[in-house]
Every structure is written in structure tokens, then in C-alpha cells.
Amino acid sequence: MNISLTSVDSVNAIIEVSIAKSDYQEKVEGSLKNFRKKANIPGFRPGTVPMGMVKKMYGKSIMAEEINKLVGEGLYNYIKENNLNVLGEPLPNEEKQQPVDFAVEGDYNFFFDVALAPEIKLSLSKKDKINYYKIDVAEDLVEKQIDSYKANYGKYEAITEAAAETDLVRGKISEMDGKKVKKDGIFVEAGVVMASYIKDEGEKKKFVGVKPGDVIVFNPGKAYEGNEAEIAALLHIEKDGVEAIAPEFQFEVTEVTRYKEAGLDQELFDKVFGEGTVKTEADFRTKVKETISTQFAPDSDYKFLLDAKELLEKKAGDLQFPDAFLKRWLVESNKNNNAENIDENYPKIIEDLKFHLIKEQIVKDNELKLEEADVKAVAMNAARAQFAQYGMMGLPDSMVENYANDMLKNQESARNLVDRAMEMKIIDHLKNTLGVKEEVISLDEFKKFFEQPAEASEEVEVAEKAEKKAAKTTKKTTAKKTKKDE
User: Fold this and answer.
1) What is the pLDDT of residues 279-290, one digit of tens each?
2) What is the rounded CA–CA span in Å between residue 223 and residue 193?
3) Rounded-to-integer distance, Cα 342 and Cα 358, Å
4) Residue 268 domain-assigned (yes or no)
5) CA 261 to CA 155: how far, in whole Å?
């Protein structure tokens, strides 16, 4: 097998793969023999089918399979061994490639168009000035977060005063037969009602102001009109049995409970940050402020990277791309694409591809390496952030680690975490290389960077799709080469 590359221009080339009969003959014969052993052809026991018949029936398809496998392996090995930074995947050359007749044994030539990434040269130093916007954690943000913790870690407590709309009223629910409790009717020992969830105002008022020991008569069908699931859950019956219930039920109040927020005390401190981590209110407020600041850091990094993108693109200058090839590849690689929508989205695809290649060049030039610990750390932070959304702070590291490990087991999730870990490496490198000036601004000021008119939402959606396509443009071939290496 002979493989050669002919440059068309700086970003387009043609790879020719020449296959001789001697390259595939032995493999084809071996595949035919294996197929003969397993072939299930009427009139013959497995392994006794004449080889001539096997060749006649399956020889062409087996030879095509073996040759295509050889061509594919040779092509991707050549790309790897010659360190070709290709975009997308090789496509058959539409001019040079002649029809191939696999029914005739002989020598074959295959021609492939390949797109080469443009050469990028970056010269960065402290003279390249850029701002890093750190979000100021104002006291009102700290107070709001503390209020949120107090609300999340509160609990219901029994009260003796009259029930309000948002109190839980507990009691025994009995189906009525006229003015009496129905014998063998529906009975719920521990029913629970919150007046604020009742739709009908008249029924709602029956529960507001009640106390333990009070007895009222209400109409569940009217109270929760149109919500059979709610009625069934209240009365502990099947949903299809709701239509047959009596119109009125007795509710004997046994308890009224009211939600009470957690106090700003040691119990709350321990629940939020772990036992003994914080011991005073002042330390608690400091810790809350640090937590919010940590949560804001990725936003500041994101803004920094956006600003760095503009600077880096200027440094890279005008880059030439194999436009015709990329448009063709984008159409052929996705059945949902067509020439029209590719033309529409192409400028944004190229913009994102350009920055993607710049980041890759930074990684290559500075030999940035990802360790397993880097990805694990990002997964742990992502896990903590997800728990924090539900007010779950101060969880044991073992619990967070188990969740992070589960995230890493998911192929798509793991890929995103690896990308994020490498992006953090790039951001850290840029912070150390460029002339970074830190500027502390308020959250409202920071949000203004990302304000956009409503009509721009469609453009944002297009941009997000383009970014994914840009990443795939370089990753698809890399993925195949990696798989081959394995």
C-alpha cells in the first residue's frame, strides 16, 4: 500500500491511497475461509459449502469490506503519523476518484479530499492588556443567601392559634351521608390540607382560622375542581373513583402546624457548612460571602475568556479556511443539513471554529496537559454546584465524590467535563501570560455585559448550534484517531 499527499493550497490537499492485490489478497482469502465455516446455505452443512460457491455469492462484498478497511486504516494512520491537523473527515475526491469494481481483482487507487487547519501563530505577553471583572459580593447578596438558608432549613411546628392560609391543617377525613358520617364510607386517619392550595374561595375560607378540635364540612370536588389527582391523593383513593364520592366530607382538625424558618444559630451553621466548620455568626457570614464569591468565579472566567477571544483573534490575524470542503462536509455528515442552512450559519461556524483552533494552539504551544486529578476536581465542583442549587451545602466529600464519579461514567458528561477542565487550564495560562487588570464591579454592572434585545435570542440559538458544529469539525477526526490508537 502506498499513500501520498498532494497540496492544493495551504488548507486543502488530496491524499491518494494505492492498494495492490498483494495488500488485500491474503485478508480476503482468510475472510472467505472464516465465512465458509459459518455459512448457513440450504443443502450444505456449515463448513462444507464449496469455496467456489462462497466466492461467487459473497466474494465481491467481502473483498469490498476488506479493501475499505485497509483504506480506512491506512488513511487515518497516515494522518496521525504525519501530524496532519485535519478538519472534519476526509471525503472522496469527486474529480479523480473513478468507479471501483470489486468483482475484478487488481490494483486500486482511492483519492480523498482533506481539509487542513490554517497555521496559527500567537505571540502573547504582559503588554497585551485585558480586564478581569470580579463580581463584588455585596451585603444584600449575603443577606439574601442567609434568608434562603433559613427558609430551606426551617421546619413545621405545631401551633395552638388559628390556622393561616399557608399553615398545614391535619385531621381525620370522613365521607358524609347527608348530615351524618357515612357508614363504611371513605375515611382518612391523617389527612393534610393547606388552604392556599384550594382553588374555591368558599372552601378555602373553611380552613382558615381553624384550631385543633374544630370540625368542618367541606366539598373536595369543589375545593380542587378539575384536579382529580389532587382529590384522589387527599382521600387516599384511586383516581377513577373520584366521580363516585359523596359531595361532602367531614374534617376533624387534630393539629395545625406552621413553617418556621431556621434560626441563625449553630444548628443552621452545621447544616449549611458541616458540623463545627463555623462557630459564630460573623464567621458564618464570612463563609457565606466566600461561597457566593466562589459561585461567581466561573462567570468572571467566562467573561474573561470572551474578552480574551477578541484579543487572541486579532493576534492570530486573518485565517484562511477550506470553505468549499467544510460546507460539503457539514452537509454530508448530517442529514438535517442542506446547502441553504449551512450557508446561513457558516459565518458563525467559522467564527467559533477559529477560536476553537486558537485554544488548541495555546494548548500545543505551551504543552498544557490534563491530569486525571484536574478532571476529577472539575467534576467535584460541578457536583457541589448541583447540590447547592437545592440548598444542600456542607455535604461529606465522599457523597460529592460518588456523584462526581457517576457524572464521569456518562460519556457525554465526561467529555464536557474534560473540555471544561482544559478550558480552565487555558484561562489560568492566559491570566499568567497577559497583562491582566482586576476590576471589582457589582453584580448589576456585570449583568449589563450580557444584556441583549429580545430579537437577539434567535441569533444566540444559532450561535450555540454553530459552536457545537465547530467543535465537531475538529473532534470527529480526532475521535476516530484516538479510537484507532486504542
Assistant:
1) 999 999 999 999
2) 11
3) 23
4) no
5) 7
Residues of the domain holding 469: 129-148+277-485
Query: How far is it between the farthest Cα atoms of the chain?
Result: 99
- State how beta strands 435-441 and 129-135 pair: parallel
The three-point CA angle 99-104-110 to 5° equals 40
Q: Are residues 317 and 195 in the same domain?
A: no
Judged on CB neighbours under 10 Å (0-12, 13-18, 19+), 64 is middle
Residues 207 and 250 in one domain: yes
pLDDT tens digits, one per residue of 49-88: 777 787 777 778 888 888 999 999 999 999 999 999 999 9
Total domains, the chain:
3
Q: Any long-range contacts for 110-113 (C-beta under 8 Å, 24+ apart)?
A: 110/16, 110/17, 110/18, 110/19, 110/71, 111/14, 111/15, 111/16, 111/17, 112/14, 112/15, 112/16, 112/17, 112/75, 113/12, 113/13, 113/14, 113/325
Query: What's this model's pTM, rounded to 2 decimal places?
Result: 0.73
Q: Confirm if 155 and 259 have CB atoms less than 8 A apart.
A: yes
The reply to whether 189 falls in a domain is yes
Q: Are 309 and 166 in contact (CB under 8 A)?
A: no
* C-alpha–C-alpha distance, residues 473 and 115, integer Å: 10
If one counts every other C-beta atom within 10 angstroms of the C-beta of residue 297, the result is: 13
CB 261 within 8 A of CB 154: yes
Residue 211: Cβ within 10 Å count: 14
Residue 159 lies in a domain: yes
From the list 54, 3, 48, the residue with the least C-alpha distance to 28 is: 54
Where do we find the cell 465547530?
470
Query: What DSSP state is assigned to residue 317?
Result: -
| Same domain (yes/no): 183, 230 | yes
Residue whose grid cell is 441569533? 459
